[in-house]
Design a protein that fits this description.
Elements lengths: L1 H7 L10 E3 L2 E3 L2 H7 L7 E4 L14 H5 L5 E4 L3 H4 L8 H4 L3 E6 L12 E5 L1 H9 L8 H12 L2
Parallel strand pairs: 3-4, 4-5
Antiparallel strand pairs: 1-2, 5-6
């Protein structure tokens, strides 16, 4: 999805392959850091990764957050890894960190097309200000509320 969106927006996408080690695909956090240049506009890390299901060690996110470059941590599958693997705590310290999630995967609501972003209040206000007033339909909104209340 990132490749398609990036291409549509004219971005040059840089991907860093995972490392196969100890019979597991692991994030190459050093390779990711080395891929960052003065032209890097955004960093996107799926955590846990799809399709491997592996997640990056929490301490490896901090150097990316400290670059000041917008860091999006895609947590579409975080419920499968356990919410303890979430990087949401980084949003309290770093304004440039956004966590994205969806109800499509673990909650089985793919047809509702409901996703959400967690981040610093100031950044979320900026994002909200750029959205259309009715960007979420009534049915998906009520389904999402019911899902969150059921937690």
């Amino acid at each position: 999805m990132y490749g398609l969106r990036g291409t549509l927006l004219g971005a040059k996408m840089v991907s860093v392959p995972m490392i196969y080690e100890d019979h597991l695909l692991k994030f190459d956090h050093k390779g990711l850091m080395n891929a960052i240049t003065d032209k890097t506009k955004i960093i996107v890390i799926p955590n846990p990764n799809n399709p491997s299901g592996n997640y990056m060690d929490p301490e490896h996110f901090i150097p990316f957050a400290e670059t000041g470059i917008p860091l999006i941590v895609d947590e579409a599958y975080v419920e499968y890894a356990g919410l303890g693997k979430s990087q949401v705590q980084l949003t309290k310290k770093y304004k440039n960190v956004l966590i994205t999630r969806t109800l499509s995967k673990a909650y089985g609501l793919a047809g509702m097309r409901f996703g959400y972003t967690i981040g610093h209040e100031d950044v979320i206000k900026q994002i909200a200000g750029s959205l259309l007033p009715w960007n979420v339909g009534t049915i998906p909104m009520w389904a999402a509320l019911a899902t969150f209340e059921d937690q």
